Request: fold
Amino acid sequence: MTKKILAWLMLLGFMATLTACNTIEGMGKDVENGGQHVEGAAKDVKKGM
Reply:
């Protein structure tokens, strides 16, 4: 029963992600933007060392 609920939650989460991005290209841009923020944060930490 819990596996079934978990599977539904994962499916709903995946569908929400696709809906938010609208396209695979949009999803790629979102991932790239997230990567740039992580890279910027890493550079800030490196400067503080």
About this structure: Residues 24-48 form the longest helix (25 residues). The helical segments are 2-21, 24-48. The mean pLDDT is 82. The chain has one domain: 2-48.
